[in-house]
Amino acid sequence: MSGSGDELKGLSFAIITVSDRSWAGQREDLSGPALKDYLEKKGARIVKMLLVPDELEEIKTTLIALCDDPDAPEVILTTGGTGLSPRDVTPEATRAALEKEVPGLAEAMRAESRKKTPMAMLSRATCGIRKKTLIVNLPGSVRGALENLEVVAPALGHALEILRQKISDCQQSEHLSDKEKEKK
Predict the structure, then answer these.
(1) What does residue 117 show for φ and ψ, rounded to 5 degrees?
(2) Do the domain assignments include residue 18?
(3) What does the alpha-carbon distance between residue 86 and residue 72 come to, in Å, rounded to a whole number?
(4) Cα(150)–Cα(38) distance, integer angstroms
(5) What CATH number did the domain enclosing 41 receive?
(6) Pairwise CA distance, residues 31 & 35, whole Å
(7) Are 66 and 72 in contact (CB under 8 A)?
(8) Whole-prediction pTM value?
(9) Contacts of 112-116 spanning 24+ positions with Cβ under 8 A
(10) Looking at the 3D structure of the chain, how many domains does it have?
(11) Is 1 a domain residue?
(12) pLDDT tens digits for the chain (184 residues)?
């Protein structure tokens, strides 16, 4: 992976675990806490951790409420509900909450994951923005969630700079490639 390793430092995150069994207390949520630990080690702030069942309206309502809050997190990570099971509705709920999709993030996660398992092709994860918050769907497994977060982490800071209008275009960013810097 590229990136300086501190691209998550100072960013605010909410983590939503989507799981019927964890929500009902039948299985411990492992992916939400693993994401929290990873992000905190990288210097990110976790402002909210939630657990919701695989219910489209509940997921959508939760996403909208978090994004529309005046103290909205910069990034919302969902974990779970991105597969082919009839109860897997996280991508549909996310799309219903989004104002714009950011398909490159999900494409990058699938492409990198495909190098490790052909099952990555079955992921229906989506990513996008609502207001000033970036929403990223991650797999429900600890390994899948962490590996996919590592794929998109180098782009999150730059995406948020643009989204929150800290820079107006890529030419003003410190995230330019070395070739782009040489051209200037």
Answers:
(1) -155, 135
(2) yes
(3) 30
(4) 10
(5) 3.40.980.10
(6) 6
(7) yes
(8) 0.89
(9) 112/147, 112/148, 112/151, 113/144, 113/147, 113/148, 113/151, 116/147
(10) 1
(11) no
(12) 445 568 899 999 999 999 999 999 999 999 999 999 999 999 999 999 999 999 999 999 999 999 999 999 999 999 999 999 999 999 999 999 999 999 999 999 999 999 999 999 999 999 999 999 999 999 999 999 999 999 999 999 999 999 988 765 555 445 555 554 454 4
Helix (H) or strand (E) holding 170: none
Structural domain includes residue 177: yes
Tokens of 61: 């309502």
Contact present, 79 and 18 (Cβ < 8 Å): yes
Burial class (CB within 10 angstroms; exposed 0-12, middle 13-18, buried 19+) of 156: buried
Containing structural domain, residue 162? 12-183
